Amino acid sequence: xxxxxxxxxxxxxxxxxxxxxxxxxxxxxxxxxxxxxxxxxxxxxxxxxxxxxxxxxxxxxxxxxxxxxxxxxxxxxxxxxxxxxxxxxxxxxxxxxxxxxxxxxxxxxxxxxxxxxxxxxxxxxxxxxxxxxxxxxxxxxxxxxxxxxxxxxxxxxxxxxxxxxxxxxxxxxxxxxxxxxxxxxxxxxxxxxxxxxxxxxxxxxxxxxxxx
Length: 212
Known about the structure:
Layout: H1 2-35, H2 42-49, H3 53-60, H4 63-89, H5 93-104, H6 107-110, H7 115-122, H8 129-154, H9 159-182, H10 189-211
């Protein structure tokens, strides 16, 4: 009986802490969109969240800590998105690569409330080592997955060629994300998605022709 009594408050405290962290991370995103990365502070985030600045300090210690965790959360959301897409695509590497493209142009990955966040942080990667470390960690996992898929499609284990194909795919996504960010009124996600899928089909057709 006493064991149950002591466990329940601990669980509730964790749930409350998780809710507060989520509240602050979401508020940090809104603050960056409203004020920009440089002018986002613990105070602006606390104000967006409707909490005291002391609560923000309690959970993230500093502005740097909060922004680093906001970037990590952004990458984690993106990674979850394309990993879920892969699970639904089955085992065929062609379908799995197409699923990645679908995920890349999902609004949760590059919608108008998300793209400005990516570019705000990417502009600081070389000046903030903690941001760079977060990006490298997530990018390395994605690159490993992409190279493995292209190796399956190429029918071999030439990591050099598979790496190049994976790099081309990500370069396409990055290029279209930049275009969507800079010219949101002149280009849309659907066009970007279809154009990228068309180029991916050409890449896959080339591989198929070589393996025939």
